[in-house]
Amino acid sequence: MQVQCPKHKDSQFLYIWSKENEVKFICDQCHSDLIRLKQVQSQNLINIRKAYQNPEYLFSEITNSEILQEFFFELNQCEEKNLNHQIMEIEKFIKEVQNQLIVMQQELYVYKKKYMELRLQIREKLEEIIKFDQFKKCISNLNQLEKTINPQDITQSERDVYNYFQDSILKKQVSLNNQIFTILNYKNQYTRESRINYPEWNKLDQLYKQLNEMHTSFNIMINPKFPGTIQNTSLLAREFQAKLIDIIVKKSNKPITKIELIHQECYSNLNAETFWNKVDGKDNLLIVFQSEKENIFGAYSPCQWVKSQRGQYVSDETLTSFLFSQTNNQIYPIKKDFRGYAIYCCLQYGPVFGGTPLLNRAIYYFQNKSDLHITSNFQIGSSSLGTSYAIEEKQTQPDLEINLFGQNAQKITTYEIFQLSFN
Ligand SMILES: [Zn+2]
Q1: Three-class SS state of 213
Q2: What is the pLDDT of residues 254-278, one digit of tens each?
Q3: What is the whole-number distance in angstroms between the Cα of residue 56 and the centre of ligand 1?
Q4: pLDDT by residue (tens digit) across 343-372?
Q5: Are 202 and 341 in the same domain?
Q6: Domain extent for 183
Q7: What does the alpha-carbon distance between residue 292 and residue 289 come to, in Å, rounded to a whole number?
Q8: Is the CB of residue 313 less than 8 Å from the CB of residue 340?
């Protein structure tokens, strides 16, 4: 790409400036002028050389999908030469591990030798204490008798051995045992100090841990994080599916293994009874609504839904619950101080998220002001965002009253319930 900028001599086109109704080729100097005049923002500039070589870069500069931008950025981040470098580093390391394996094996021989020495030392002491040579003498005498086979001599030999047992061992058992215990105690202390550590083996263990880390980081490099999807939804757009999954995984800090559509209902069939029968006892539910104005919104909470006649709030100590509006591309996380009011279970209502309980003589009553409240017929709802679920500061209260449903109509036409499973 070597086209001269007609406005600036000796300066070549570097960027494509993407504007609403046209694009312009600009050079470095055009760029500086535009920056000075504050006419261009760097995110609207596409590097020509990079785009020419790299369709992923080109696409991520143009697409409106944040999820795809992130994906292609990540996919492109790691060059082949980096991977080769990483593999070479691992290879070097493997050599080091191989050397260490040999050293570790030598260490085994050293310790074996020490062990054999130890046995010998103990044996020598034992021989001394039990006067072993006397016993040996008895037995060698017997051996010499073998040719003559004189019964009297054999009897004599047996008596000798008996006397040896009696005099050298049995009659002074206590003191003799004590002497041996003393020797063993001394040897035990000595060996404990001198050999337990296996330093070469430990070094090998450390090397292996490092190799494992290198392997893990290589594995991360070659495993791009694909955008998540939710099957069987007629309400959630692909982009927003990926966004929801990303948020849930980050907040829960564990991977999702399964997302199952457990209920889908529209128009005439909407009622709270069916809802409660479907959700009773279940947790990790993602619920998505569509209003008459075709606004799509909903909520995720790890809390367990339970049929309750009198009504009860369920607390979310994990702070993972959130409301969302796909239409406004917004997430509303639960406020820390309001985690006790993540969801409200009461058979007289549909699903309720958030609230400020009314304190009356030490009894908390349900107050009809929640971040999202679906009524008993399951067709009408209300939404006061910012009560227990946080909103961005710039949004004002009147906006929020209609925020989730869209304009004044607060009727629901369709909803879906998904149950998530985690590892
Ligand atoms: Zn120029």
Answers
A1: helix
A2: 999 999 999 998 877 778 888 999 9
A3: 26
A4: 999 998 899 999 876 655 445 556 667 899
A5: no
A6: 82-210
A7: 10
A8: yes
Going from the Cα of 35 to the center of ligand 1, the distance in angstroms, rounded, reads: 13
Q: Answer for the pair 290, 413: CB distance below 8 angstroms, yes or no.
A: yes
> 87, 218 in Cβ contact below 8 A?
yes
Q: What is the distance between the alpha carbons of residues 150 and 138, in angstroms, rounded to a whole number?
A: 16
Strand pairing partners for 362? none
pLDDT digits (tens, 9 = 90+) for 290-328: 988 889 999 999 999 999 988 889 999 999 999 999 998
Residue 7 forms part of a structural domain: no
- Residue 314, classed as helix, strand or coil, is strand
In the chain the first and final C-alpha atoms are separated, in Å, by 50
Question: Which DSSP helix (H) or strand (E) runs through 291?
Answer: strand 285-291
3-state SS assignment for residue 298:
strand
Query: Do 256 and 195 belong together in one domain?
Result: no
Residue where a domain stops, chosen among 39, 56, 77: 77
What SS3 state is found at 45? strand
Cα of 16 vs centre of ligand 1, distance in Å, is 12
Q: Give the span between the Cα atoms of 243 and 222, in whole angstroms.
A: 22
150 and 101 inside one domain: yes
Euclidean distance between CA atoms 295 and 278, whole angstroms: 24
Q: How far is the CA of 13 from the centre of ligand 1 (A)?
A: 7
Q: Residue 292 class from Cβ within 10 Å (0-12 exposed, 13-18 middle, 19+ buried)?
A: middle
Sheet hosting strand 312-314, strand order edge to edge: 312-314, 343-345, 352-353, 372-374, 381-382
Tokens 């710039």 sit on residue: 394
What is the pLDDT averaged over residues 400-415?
73
Domain count, the chain: 3
The CA-atom distances, in angstroms, between 394 and each of 80, 209, 325, 397, 398 are 44, 49, 16, 10, 12
**CA–CA distance, 92 with 86 (Å, rounded to integer):** 10
Q: In angstroms, how far is CA 49 from the centroid of its own chain?
A: 38
| Of the residues 77, 110, 130, the one at which a domain ends | 77
| pLDDT given at position 409 | 61
Task: Show Cβ contacts of residue 204 under 8 Å, excluding neighbours closer than 6 positions.
Answer: 97, 100, 101, 103, 104
Distance 10 CA to ligand 1 centre (A): 9
Question: How close is the Cα of 44 to the center of ligand 1, in Å?
Answer: 16
